[in-house]
Specification:
Elements (H helix, E strand, L loop, with lengths): L1 E3 L6 E2 L7 E6 L15 H4 L3 H9 L1 E5 L10 H8 L10 H8 L9 E13 L2 E7 L5 H16 L3 E7 L2 E6 L31 H20 L1 H8 L7 E9 L6 H5 L3 E5 L2 H9 L3 E4 L6 H17 L4 E6 L1 H7 L3 H13 L3 H5 L4 E5 L17 E6 L13 H4 L5 E3 L1 H11 L30
Parallel strand pairs: 3-12, 3-13, 4-15, 10-11, 10-12
Antiparallel strand pairs: 1-2, 4-14, 5-6, 5-8, 5-9, 7-8, 13-14
Helix pairs in contact: 3-15, 4-9, 5-6, 10-12, 11-12
Length: about 450
């Protein structure tokens, strides 16, 4: 500590604030699997580096929104980043930004996708989507749909492959339901419905536009050629993730510290862009150990450049969970762990946190669930507990207990010796950190 100031008894505080690295293994959480001895893939995996972190640090469960609700990645991350009190703009906005599109402010946008379907008793059952090999056909079909959709006030901006951003030029509210059923086994294509009175006009126009798109796709020569070649027709346009881009605070303004991200997908690029976070984009590699090692190294470089919070993400765990093969998810975790040796050195100069954004069970007929995901934090403010291995079962004895998505960032800031002091206000907007850049009182004496 530094000597006390004149007339003071308390020593001046040392500046031992640390930056934070949050490593999110997407969809990490799971359920007990009989084939794995009633263990989850994380519990069954051989993960010496993650186990060592758990043994060095404090642990708990990340349960984003309490027991029960099944979070999506975008909703979890919005709260994990400290934006739970800011209206979420809609994932379509972030997908568009991540693709490099100039997403207009104040206009409703939706994610639109070309799908294959089966008509049964007046209902369209979604049977698939455009594959990578269908990119040329998808481009032609979207080109044809431009004039069809324009008649109803919509424009298309390609996102790549069979996906586009659908812009509702005459609507400033996006309060409508998804038409994409997501759960294709349970539901056919859904009718767009308003979620508030503000969405009534958009729902009406969108339904008319989707019917027009369907009629055109059924008659398209592109689809006729596909059928002749033994390929399924891309005969349906589905929509989801409606939203509106509006002014929102940057990550720095919302949290008080400079944020950065090592991004892996279009969505996370868009999230970082929207929040004005510095980013390093690394395309996912098939060698998962090399992939995650490169991401950890990139996080270190961002810290050297001044970032005080760095989000590192891999989707490999989530993708493995969606295969419904628990062995595949276990193996993916083992491969990722092989690339985490760099976390040990990084933990000497930063708080390290490892967790998931939700559970993606590798068993049962569910996409995501509210099952707990392990949380490990290593840092000067994280008390070492009795946990010695990384996983859901062992984490139940962790020091932090159950942590929600909204609680995560304040917890990490405390562990990094930079929590907001509730008896001291230095920013017009409340932030969860001891802000790095409050406005200084300047004099010209």
């Amino acid at each position: 500590m530094k000597p006390a100031g004149y007339g003071e008894s308390q020593p001046r505080l040392d500046d031992d604030r640390r930056p934070i690295v949050l490593l999110v293994l997407d969809g990490l959480g799971d359920r007990p699997v009989p084939e794995l001895g009633d263990r989850t893939p994380a519990e069954a995996a051989d993960t010496p580096h993650l186990d060592a972190l758990a043994a060095r640090g404090a642990n708990g469960w990340h349960v984003p929104f309490g027991w029960g609700p099944a979070p999506s990645s975008e909703v979890s991350h919005w709260s994990m980043f400290g934006f739970h009190d800011v209206a979420f703009p809609g994932r379509a906005v972030l997908e568009g930004l991540g693709a490099g599109l100039d997403v207009p402010e104040g206009r409703a946008v939706l994610h639109a996708a070309l799908r294959t379907s089966r008509l049964e008793s007046g209902r369209l059952w979604i049977t698939g989507r455009a594959s990578a090999a269908d990119s040329d056909d998808a481009r032609l079909l979207f080109s044809e749909l431009h004039s069809v959709l324009a008649d109803d006030g919509f424009t298309l901006a390609p996102l790549g492959g069979g996906e586009s951003l659908l812009v509702a030029e005459h609507h400033e509210y996006a309060d409508v339901t998804d038409t994409d059923p997501f759960f294709e086994t349970f539901h056919p294509l859904l009718r767009p419905r308003p979620t508030t009175e503000n969405g009534t006009a958009l729902a009406t126009d969108l339904e008319r536009a989707l019917r027009g798109a369907r009629a055109h796709l059924l008659q398209s020569t592109v689809n006729a050629r596909r059928v002749d070649a033994g390929l399924p027709a891309l005969d349906t346009l589905s929509t989801k993730w409606a939203g509106v881009r509006r002014p929102i605070p940057s990550f720095l303004e919302q949290t008080g510290i400079a944020g950065a991200a090592v991004t892996s997908t279009r969505f996370y690029r868009g999230l970082a862009k929207l929040l004005d976070m510095q980013q390093t984009h690394l395309r996912p590699e098939s060698d998962l150990a090399h992939d995650i090692a490169a991401r950890v190294a990139a996080a270190g470089e961002l810290i050297e450049a001044g970032a005080q919070f760095v989000h590192v993400h891999t989707k490999a765990t989530d993708e493995a969970g969606h295969t419904k093969d628990p062995y595949a998810k276990r193996d993916v975790l083992q491969q990722i762990d092989q690339g985490l040796a760099g976390l040990d050195a990084l933990s000497e100069r930063a708080v390290i946190a490892v967790t998931g954004d939700h559970a993606t069970p590798s068993v049962h007929g569910v996409l995501h669930t509210g099952d707990p995901t392990p949380l490990t934090i290593v840092g000067p403010g994280a008390r070492r507990d009795e946990v010695t291995a990384f996983g859901e079962w062992t984490a139940r004895h962790g020091w932090f207990g159950k942590v929600s998505a909204a609680e995560l960032l304040p917890l990490l800031l405390s562990c990094a010796n930079r929590p907001v002091f509730l008896g001291h206000r230095i920013t017009p907007r409340w932030v969860p950190a001891l802000a790095d850049e409050p406005e200084h009182f300047r004099v010209t004496e």
